[in-house]
Write a structure and sequence with these properties.
Layout lengths: L2 H5 L1 E2 L5 E3 L1 H7 L4 E4 L3 H4 L10 E2 L5 H5 L7 E5 L4 H12 L4 E5 L2 H7 L7
Parallel strand pairs: 2-6, 3-4, 3-5, 5-6
Antiparallel strand pairs: 1-2
């Protein structure tokens, strides 16, 4: 189990949940996928440095090329879309999927750094 997995909690939909403070403290080189729309990525809430923009509607198609054993944290505005993406990835056989609870709203509320 990875550090982020240890810092996260199980979700009944086959993935794990992590809060923004634990993610910020333990991130390391974990792959971060932002499933918001391109118009949201550089907007008011910004994005976490190093995230890859993969809009929710494209996740299942794009993810076909990803390593299913890689640790992936999924992010969106509030946690809803990323939760749906995390469930879809878990259903595709990804083993280490973590949803960032509260999304970018929580990240910004915690005063954590963003890029725009």
């Amino acid at each position: 189990m990875t550090t982020l997995e240890q810092a996260s909690t199980p979700n009944p939909n086959g993935f794990r949940e992590i809060d923004v403070q634990r993610l910020a403290a333990s991130r390391g080189t974990t792959r971060l996928i932002d499933v918001r729309e391109p118009s949201e990525y550089n907007a008011e809430l910004g994005h976490i440095a190093g995230t890859e923009l993969v809009p929710l509607a494209t996740v299942e198609h794009v993810a076909k090329a990803w390593d299913r054993n890689q640790e992936i944290v999924v992010v969106c505005r509030s946690g809803g879309r990323s939760g749906r993406a995390a469930a879809a990835l878990a259903a595709m056989g990804f083993k280490h999927i973590i949803n960032m609870s509260g999304g970018m709203l929580a990240w910004n509320a915690a005063g954590l750094p963003v890029e725009r």
